[in-house]
Design goal:
The chain has 181 residues and is α/β, with parallel strands linked by helices. The chain is built from eight helices and six strands. It binds flavin mononucleotide.
């Protein structure tokens, strides 16, 4: 299965969590890793190129730091620009049908805060729903998402993040059915 990981971090070089999660991919050539903010510093997304890359890959992982209960804005623009009528949905728009999408996000808040009645009131599943619906509206398969919590300073250590990175790489490579069960 051809997999592409698109990272949407405004400053990946200064990142801790997202950068450590990428460490297992240093020697892997079977997964395409992209840094969206680096590729499009002017935010001028090459839609034809994105369409071609999406056509080439069966699984697309969208990795980002959780910002204001959502993704950083360039990833939203990526959806707006790339998921076009006649290509992603609508008449003739079948290119994303059955393509697998996985969200992977790093979160400062603790997991227990993201529940009904918790400090952040809503679950991650609820907060990620607009992206889920965007994908399913276009016929894509929304795989269970990956989230790691407590990623800021007083939270998980580099060592824990390195262990998580191994687990994350296994999840990214796992077939869809066991992931969903
Ligand atoms: C603009 C901004 C908004 C953020 N919003 C949230 C948020 O809504 N919930 C949360 O738990 N953490 C939030 N955070 C914390 C980030 O999720 C966290 O710093 C990031 O995942 C760490 O990843 P990195 O080390 O790769 O940068 C926010 C951080 C920034 C800079």
């Amino acid at each position: 299965m051809k997999t592409m990981i698109i990272i949407a971090h405004p400053d990946l070089e200064s990142s801790r969590a997202n950068r450590i999660l990428m460490q297992p991919y240093k020697d892997k050539e079977d997964v395409v890793i992209r840094d969206l903010y680096k590729e499009y510093p002017d935010w001028n997304i090459d839609v034809q190129r994105e369409h071609a890359l999406l056509d080439e890959h069966e699984r697309v992982v969208l990795q980002f730091p959780f910002y204001w209960y959502s993704s950083p804005p360039l990833l939203k623009k990526w959806f707006d620009d790339v998921f076009t009528y006649g290509w992603a949905f609508g008449s003739g728009g079948h290119h994303l049908r059955d393509k697998e999408f996985m969200l992977a996000t790093t979160v400062a808040g603790s997991e227990h805060e993201y529940r009904a009645g918790g400090g952040n009131l809503y679950t991650m599943s609820e907060l990620l729903r607009p992206i889920q619906r965007t994908i399913t509206r276009c016929g894509g398969t929304f795989l269970p998402f990956y989230a790691i919590h407590d990623v800021d300073k007083a939270g998980v250590s580099d060592e824990v993040l390195q262990q998580e990175a191994v687990r994350y790489a296994e999840i990214v490579a796992a077939p869809a059915i066991p992931l969903a069960h």
